[in-house]
Structures are given as structure tokens and as C-alpha cells.
């Protein structure tokens, strides 16, 4: 994350202070979602998977069938290049610093 602020006081022209900070987990997750082009529903499911929700819990909370949840999970796997929930969480942690 890059932050900049204008410095006040006597000077010959505008002065800025610039700082660089590591992106937080929420920013990193958002960028990963954008990079992998996940849909809004896939993002909701990804958030729930990170929290450890089961397919059944996801289906109940989103008012969709377990089969639909599985379809979304498969799509997330394809878009992120993984083949299991464990691989997905590992990828998020190791590559994107999430979790």
C-alpha cells in the first residue's frame, strides 16, 4: 500500500511525504479476487471457505443447493489453479499473504 500526504510549511513548492506499507489481508484478498476474475458469488464462497465452512453450511447460509456450491467451488479451483480446499488455502496464504 502506498500512502502520500502533503507537507505544510515554508517550501519552494509542493512537498509530499510518501510511505510504503505491506498490504493487509483484506487488500491482498481483494487483489487476488480481481486477478483471478472471481464473480461476486465466488468471492462470497471463497470468504466462507477461508473461515472453514462446509459445503452444507455454505448452501444453507446462501440459500442455494449444495450442488450449486460445489459448482462455484470447482470454478474457484479452476480460476486459482488449485485442486482442493487445502491447496486453495495454502495458495492464499503462501502467495497472497491471506489468512
CATH topology: Arc Repressor Mutant, subunit A
Which H/E pattern describes the elements? EEHHHHH
CATH class: Mainly Alpha
- What is the CATH architecture descriptor? Orthogonal Bundle
CATH H-level superfamily title:
Winged helix-like DNA-binding domain superfamily/Winged helix DNA-binding domain
Number of helices: 5
- Tally of separate domains: 1
Count of strand segments: 2
User: What structural class should be given to the helix and strand makeup?
Assistant: alpha+beta
Q: What is the percent of helical residues?
A: 55-70%
Uncertain residue ranges: none
In angstroms, what separates the terminal alpha carbons?
18 Å
Radius of gyration over alpha carbons?
Answer: 19 Å
How much of the polypeptide forms β-strand, as a percent range?
5-15%
Mean pLDDT: 86
Estimate the global geometry from the Cα principal axes.
elongated
Biggest β-sheet strands, sense, barrel: 2 strands, antiparallel
Strand adjacency order, main sheet: 1-2
Explained architecture:
The protein has a single domain, classed as Winged helix-like DNA-binding domain superfamily/Winged helix DNA-binding domain (Arc Repressor Mutant, subunit A, Orthogonal Bundle). The two termini are 18 Å apart. α2 (40-50) crosses α4 (66-80) and α3 (55-62) crosses α4. It is elongated, with a radius of gyration of 19 Å. With 99 residues, the chain is of the alpha+beta class. The protein has a two-stranded antiparallel sheet with strand order 1-2. The chain has helices at 25-35, 40-50, 55-62, 66-80, 85-96; strands at 2-7, 15-20.
Amino acid at each position: 500500500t502506498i500512502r502520500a500526504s502533503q507537507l505544510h510549511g515554508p517550501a519552494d513548492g509542493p512537498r509530499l511525504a510518501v510511505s510504503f506499507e505491506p498490504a493487509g489481508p483484506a487488500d491482498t484478498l481483494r487483489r487476488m479476487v480481481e486477478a483471478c476474475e472471481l464473480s461476486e458469488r465466488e468471492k462470497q464462497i471463497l470468504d466462507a471457505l477461508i473461515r472453514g465452512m462446509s459445503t452444507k453450511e455454505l448452501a444453507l447460509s446462501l440459500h442455494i443447493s449444495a450442488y450449486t456450491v460445489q459448482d462455484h467451488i470447482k470454478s474457484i479451483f479452476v480460476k486459482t489453479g488449485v485442486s482442493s480446499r487445502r491447496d486453495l488455502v495454502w495458495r492464499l496464504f503462501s502467495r497472497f499473504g491471506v489468512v
